[in-house]
């Protein structure tokens, strides 16, 4: 589906399969297969060892999701898989066949382009310093508010415990999450 | 303060960062881009007998392999002065630390490059290695450089500072105390590891790199690749955290490697480090070391009459920044209290660990972890409470202090005011129950309170800026302002808008690019605000003067009769007579070319009255309450209040964010973070992952309060009286926590971080 990189292609067509992903409401069909070494062929969209994070960033150009620790310890790569908060660095893309994935790029209103209340609250509260944790932090916040619309400060701390902000901006982030909850409450009552 | 400064503005990058659109170097995709992986040494110290890259080169998908043959040495930098500071990006014959880079591959995919790395055959002859400075100083220690058999780093700069007669001072002292401390050895751990891309186009090189010091990276590449400055562009994007890691040779070396590979392949090459590699490749703040100090006081009033401090520090095999960090650590106490007699010295020692280099506060967090605990020891010996002793003997503005072992005077700021503010907000007086007395006990858990002071020099070197006023009255600021999350691009735009009387929204900044921008000094040493923004302020002031001069001609008035605001230039005597700034910039009489003005700022300044350097410093005071579980040794930090000064707070909420961040990082430094070397097995790092190296997470964020003390008088030399505050805010956290732990459990933990094991050892339980 993407422009093919240069390399030594070996004909293994019989092993090619297709997986289907829905990402931010858009449907993707990606080729995959096994029985292959990295240097043998460059023709698959998804290799058996590719993690969802890699596919999002390198194959689909969705670079809003950040790659940091690459071992599930920092939360920068957080996405929603079928609505559930997941670390895309710990999930194989081939295991996502048929699933619905939401990334930071998919949070705004698809029709109006209006930002999600969580995004608005983060912006209004200057809740990013370097901003590398921010997409993951916002996705994790959405997951929290989807299941607990009225969190306490303590709820926020534990819900975001897996998302590290090395700049230490937890104070403004916490403020933003509570502000986002308030915004969403107001929207619900409208 | 004005219309814009001092009022919180939403940072220019907020929408980009909240939507995932902010572009970091790792987000750039170039057609035909290759992936780079690097072979690292498994030995801390070894001779390289041979390198065979043949098999790696033959692997399908591999486009190039490079070794020392493809690189020159890195050029010397001033902060390394005197040390063995010129070294190969890829060494030809010897490695000095585990993880040192030896060869690099560019291949079609990361997996292929990874595989090729395994196929490079290096024949090593392992040599004995040494890690601790005290071990390296023993006569029988392995020698790092054969022409320097004592392993001491030869220094061209002063390594000691003195005042009065220390021996006499100790004779006059009624009480003499002696202590030995060891600071923690943390990693920077920015969430965005080192990232760089290099691309040759004919004979021109473009490098994208996540950096705090764009121009320094260019200097390194020019030196290592021998190309003229006219043929290179180095470009910065948003930076996913720096904390000092993206300043110095460790990240620049990766750019040199990518550039050499791109030259060899004729294709763009990117080098994205994994977090685990970042721990291994990056320099350390201050290698393992010890702080040995002796102080003398008078019994009557606690007067500090003598101080004798010696710091031994491992600076690694390549001794990057070997001069500066040790001198900052040794200077810590000299910089805060008025001792009558002083001797302080730093001994940088070669060893087989990572290079010493910049990390947030550049040694002050390490030095003051020790010196601020020692200040408490002095206060207790004097029979005074910690705040009373500090208030009596801390330096005041105008009093002598030393930076990099050079005497000058404290330019501004008041420790006393900050202590008062922090103590009041914390409720210190009500809580304080005396030395070694817990404020509350609940079974095995004891609570204690403690405090500490902090300072960090702010401003350094020279930066330049061009301000352009467009024909529509909007403004371009052409400068190098690396935004590492501190909000410098926003603060620069706010400052320029303030000076020119235009809307903040009408000021935009150019991307950091060495091809088009004037040279900036980089963001380190809390210099972004006084020096880099300072240069933009000076350029805006020059632009303003030109505007008024031209408007005077157009309006038939004198420049001094005119003023400007809200995008309008008007007569003071008759504000109805006015022109828009755009109309002046676009005036046909002046060629319709807009207005261009240049500005420069150099820190530090000299006091014309005394002829001394005015050391501009950001100061802070912090009070905290901890709970120590005497059964498990765990330390929980329940409450912190920091009061920090900044002169003018340009963007107050963002300034407070620097304090919040300083407290969180300081907390990690105090109780968790320590890079552990396996000293028995080739000096490899045992915890180079975020699974094993713990940094503070959300649940540790407790009752922490940041107080910004904004008084322009505190920053007398900085343009618009705004000084940096990103670094002084991390410094007081660890010593305040250590002091609080002491008051909770009655014994002092003199080595950091204050882990459960160290607490239990101090209690004699293990």
CATH architecture identity of the largest domain in chain A: Roll
Q: Can you list the strand order of the major beta sheet of chain A?
A: 2-1-5-3-4
Number of helices of chain A: 5
Shape of chain A: elongated
CATH class of the largest domain in chain B: Alpha Beta
Instruction: Give the terminus-to-terminus CA distance of chain B.
Output: 56 Å
Strand content of chain A: 5-15%
In CATH terms, the superfamily of the largest domain in chain B is Aldehyde oxidase/xanthine dehydrogenase, molybdopterin binding domain
Compressed to H and E, one letter per element, the order of chain A equals EEHEEEHHHH
Low-confidence stretches of chain A: 1-10
Biggest chain pair interface = A-B, 65 and 68 residues
Count structural domains of chain A: 2
How much helicity do the residues of chain B have? 25-40%
Oligomer type: heterodimer
Summary of the model, kept short:
The complex is a heterodimer of chains A (190) and B (766). With 190 residues, chain A is an alpha+beta fold. Chain A has helices at 52-59, 117-124, 134-147, 153-159, 170-189; strands at 17-23, 26-32, 78-81, 84-87, 100-102.
């Amino acid at each position: 589906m993407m422009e093919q990189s240069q390399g030594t292609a070996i004909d293994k067509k019989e092993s090619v399969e297709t997986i289907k992903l829905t990402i931010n409401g858009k449907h993707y069909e990606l080729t995959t297969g096994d029985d292959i070494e990295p240097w043998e062929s460059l023709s698959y969209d998804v290799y058996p060892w590719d993690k969802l994070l890699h596919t999002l960033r390198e194959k689909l150009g969705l670079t809003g999701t950040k790659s940091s620790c690459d071992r599930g310890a920092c939360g920068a790569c957080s996405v929603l898989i079928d609505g559930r908060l997941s670390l895309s660095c710990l999930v194989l893309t081939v295991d996502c066949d048929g699933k619905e994935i939401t990334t930071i790029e998919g949070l705004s209103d698809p029709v109006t382009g209006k930002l999600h209340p969580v995004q608005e609250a983060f912006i209004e509260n200057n809740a990013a310093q370097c901003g590398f944790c921010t997409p993951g932090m916002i996705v994790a916040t959405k997951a929290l508010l989807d299941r607990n619309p009225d969190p306490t400060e303590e709820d926020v701390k534990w819900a975001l415990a897996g998302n590290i902000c090395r700049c230490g901006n937890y104070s403004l982030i916490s403020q933003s999450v509570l502000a986002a909850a308030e915004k969403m409450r107001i929207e619900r009552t409208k | 303060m004005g219309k814009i400064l001092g009022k919180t503005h939403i940072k220019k990058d907020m929408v980009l960062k909240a939507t995932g659109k902010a572009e970091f170097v790792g987000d750039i995709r170039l057609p035909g881009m290759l992936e780079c992986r690097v072979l690292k040494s498994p030995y801390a110290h070894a001779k390289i007998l041979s390198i065979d890259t043949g098999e790696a080169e033959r692997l399908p998908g591999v486009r190039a392999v490079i070794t020392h043959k493809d690189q020159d040495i890195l050029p010397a930098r001033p902060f390394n002065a005197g040390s063995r500071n010129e070294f190969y990006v890829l060494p030809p014959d010897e490695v000095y630390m585990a993880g040192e880079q030896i060869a690099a591959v560019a291949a079609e995919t990361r997996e292929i490059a990874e595989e090729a790395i395994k196929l490079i055959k290096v024949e090593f002859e392992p040599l004995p290695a040494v890690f601790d400075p005290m071990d390296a100083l023993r006569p029988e220690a392995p020698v790092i450089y054969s022409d320097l058999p004592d392993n001491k780093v030869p220094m061209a700069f002063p390594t000691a500072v003195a005042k009065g007669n220390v021996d006499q001072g100790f004779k006059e002292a009624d009480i003499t105390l002696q202590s030995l401390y060891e600071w923690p050895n943390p990693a920077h751990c920015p969430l965005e590891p080192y990232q760089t891309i290099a691309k040759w186009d004919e004979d021109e090189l473009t490098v994208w790199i996540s950096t705090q010091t764009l121009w320094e990276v260019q200097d390194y590449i020019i030196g290592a690749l021998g190309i003229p400055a006219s043929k290179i562009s180095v470009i910065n994007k948003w930076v996913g955290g720096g904390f000092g890691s993206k300043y110095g040779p460790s990240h620049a070396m990766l750019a040199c490697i990518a550039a050499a590979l791109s030259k060899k392949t004729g294709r763009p090459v990117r080098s994205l480090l994994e977090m685990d590699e970042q721990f291994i490749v990056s320099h350390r703040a201050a290698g393992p070391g010890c702080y040995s100090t002796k102080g003398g006081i008078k019994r009557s009033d606690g007067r500090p009459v003598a101080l004798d401090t010696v710091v031994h520090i491992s600076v690694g095999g390549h001794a990057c920044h070997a001069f500066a960090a040790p001198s900052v650590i040794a200077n810590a106490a000299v910089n805060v209290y008025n001792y009558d007699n002083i001797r302080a010295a730093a001994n940088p020692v070669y060893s087989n660990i990572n290079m010493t280099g910049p990390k947030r506060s550049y040694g002050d967090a390490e030095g003051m972890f020790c010196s601020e605990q020692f200040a408490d020891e002095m206060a207790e010996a004097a029979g005074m409470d910690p705040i009373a002793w500090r208030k009596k003997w801390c330096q005041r503005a105008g009093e002598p202090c030393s930076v990099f072992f050079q005497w000058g005077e404290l330019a501004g700021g008041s420790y006393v005011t900050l202590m008062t503010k922090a103590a009041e907000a914390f409720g210190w007086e009500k809580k304080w129950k005396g030395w070694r007395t817990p404020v509350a006990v609940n079974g095995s858990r004891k609570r204690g309170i403690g405090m500490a002071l902090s300072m960090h020099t702010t401003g350094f070197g020279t930066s330049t800026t061009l301000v352009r006023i467009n024909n529509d009255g909007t403004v371009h600021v052409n400068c190098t302002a690396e935004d590492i999350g501190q909000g410098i691009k926003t603060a620069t735009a706010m400052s320029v808008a303030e000076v020119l009387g235009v809307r903040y929204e009408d000021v935009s900044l150019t991307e950091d690019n060495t091809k088009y921008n004037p040279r900036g000094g980089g963001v380190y040493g809390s210099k972004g605000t006084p020096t880099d923004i300072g240069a933009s302020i000076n350029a805006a002031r020059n632009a303003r003067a030109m505007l008024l001069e031209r408007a005077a001609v157009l309006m038939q008035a004198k420049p001094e009769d005119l003023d400007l605001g809200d995008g309008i230039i008007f007569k003071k005597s008759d504000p109805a007579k006015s022109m828009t700034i755009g109309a002046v910039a676009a005036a046909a009489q002046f060629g319709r070319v807009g207005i261009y003005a240049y500005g420069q700022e150099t820190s530090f300044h000299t006091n014309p009255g005394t002829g001394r350097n005015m050391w501009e410093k950001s100061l802070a005071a912090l009070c905290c309450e901890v709970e120590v579980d005497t059964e498990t040794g765990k330390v929980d930090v329940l409450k912190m209040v920091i009061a920090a000064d900044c002169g003018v707070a340009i963007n107050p909420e963002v300034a407070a964010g620097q304090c919040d961040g300083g407290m969180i990082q300081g907390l990690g430094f105090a109780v968790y973070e320590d890079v552990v070397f396996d000293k028995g097995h080739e000096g490899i790092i045992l915890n180079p992952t975020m699974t094993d190296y713990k940094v503070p997470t959300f649940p540790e964020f407790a009752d922490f309060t940041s107080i910004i003390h904004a008084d322009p008088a505190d920053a007398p030399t900085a343009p618009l009286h705004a000084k940096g505050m990103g670094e002084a805010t991390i410094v007081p956290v660890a010593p305040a926590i250590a002091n609080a732990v002491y008051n909770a459990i009655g014994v002092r933990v003199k080595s950091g971080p204050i882990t459960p094991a160290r607490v239990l050892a101090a209690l004699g339980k293990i």
